[in-house]
């Protein structure tokens, strides 16, 4: 199946190829926006075939995979997860964010745009110029607000991970939304934070990833398949574990902030970022 490019009635660009599904919006002079969209379409056609060629390597632990990867998106994936190589992680943990970053780079190259974003299933790459801002929805069971992103902040990527998403999770988070300097970096960190929202409890059912998907990069690692009712104290314990991981990553300079939710409770980890200005309701 070949790549598909279409426009929504409101002018946004939709690019889809296999599992990759992008929504793109650019702001600025009409002529510049149209040229930017044409550049994104041109770049998109080769993304999936190139990734597929390197897929076996991308499913290996990053320490083994990094030296062998050739394609630009594959390299972005490996670079994003490399700081986390002390734990088991493969470049696949950053695939959606890396695709968004790559297409955003193609979109804005040589163009004069006020702002733009590439949304790859909730993993979002952002372009901002001085005097412009984007508002990103941050949704959690007990938190429904907006993060205001401006040019002077380092945030250029947002990603969300958790149980029930597009990929398997080792943890039980309903969601872990991360702000970082790139979508790929946010994607990798969101995976680790969501994994850290965890505890042992009889209500949690796990199975080896390989039993659910023989091609999973997680192999025999136990992934969460169901979570029954948990007492509030267990929810708080799991969230505190995830918040500790988010704090560690922020203090290491790997993320700018995170919002984590589970069972109607939530935690924010901020360092004066846009997440600190989330407004409830």
TrEMBL record:
Gene3D superfamilies: ApbE-like domains. It comes from the Bacteria. InterPro entries: ApbE-like_sf, UPF0280. This is Thiamine biosynthesis protein ApbE. It comes from Reyranella soli. The lineage of its organism: Bacteria, Pseudomonadati, Pseudomonadota, Alphaproteobacteria, Hyphomicrobiales.
């Amino acid at each position: 199946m070949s790549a598909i490019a279409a426009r929504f009635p409101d002018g946004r660009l939709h690019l889809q190829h296999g599992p990759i599904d992008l929504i793109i919006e650019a702001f600025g002079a009409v002529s510049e926006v149209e040229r930017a969209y044409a550049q994104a379409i041109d770049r998109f056609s080769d993304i999936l075939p190139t990734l597929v060629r390197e897929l076996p390597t991308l499913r290996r632990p990053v320490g083994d995979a990094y030296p062998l990867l050739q394609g630009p998106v594959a390299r972005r994936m490996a670079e994003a997860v490399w700081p986390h190589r002390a734990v088991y992680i493969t470049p696949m943990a950053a695939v959606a964010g890396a695709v968004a970053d790559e297409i955003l780079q193609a979109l804005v190259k040589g163009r004069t745009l006020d702002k733009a974003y590439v949304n790859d299933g909730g993993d979002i790459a952002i372009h901002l110029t001085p005097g412009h801002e984007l508002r990103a929805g941050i949704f959690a069971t007990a938190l429904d607000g907006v993060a205001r992103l401006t040019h002077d902040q380092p945030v250029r990527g947002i990603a969300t991970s958790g149980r029930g998403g597009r990929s398997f999770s080792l943890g039980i988070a309903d969601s872990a939304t991360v702000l970082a300097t790139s979508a790929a970096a946010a994607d990798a960190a969101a995976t680790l934070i969501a994994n850290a929202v965890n505890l042992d409890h009889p209500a949690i059912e796990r199975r080896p990833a390989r039993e659910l998907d023989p091609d999973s990069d997680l192999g025999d690692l136990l992934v969460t398949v169901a979570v029954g009712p948990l007492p509030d104290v267990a929810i708080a314990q799991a969230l505190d574990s995830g918040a500790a991981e988010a704090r560690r990553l922020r203090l290491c300079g790997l993320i700018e902030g995170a919002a984590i939710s589970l069972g109607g409770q939530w935690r924010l980890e901020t360092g004066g970022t846009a997440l600190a200005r989330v407004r409830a309701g």
